[in-house]
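Wed. Picked up where I left off yesterday with DUF397 domain-containing protein. The coffee machine is broken again, so keeping this brief.
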Amino acid sequence: MPDLPPNLTWERAAPPDATGPGPWIEIAFGEGDDGDGDGDGDAPVYLRETSAPDNVVTTNRRKWDAFVLGVQAGEFDHFVEGMDN
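Structure written out below (C-alpha cells, as returned):
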C-alpha cells in the first residue's frame, strides 16, 4: 500500500438511506492544487472500496474533475443501460 497522508477525510459514495457495510466507494482529496485554475491540478485524489480499504487507487484532481464532467454528461451511461436497480 502506498504511504497515505494521515489526515485524509474519506467520503463514502452511498445513497443517504443506505445501511450496512456496502461495499461502497470512498474518496479522499489530498492537499495541494485543487484544480480551480490557479495551478496545474496535481493535488492527489484517493479512491478505495470499503471491502478492501488497503487497496487505494490514486489519481489527480485534474483527471478526477474530467471524469466527473464525463459522468454528468452521460458519457458512461452505456455501461449501465438495461441493468436493474
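Quick read: The beta strands are 11-13, 25-29, 44-49, 52-60.
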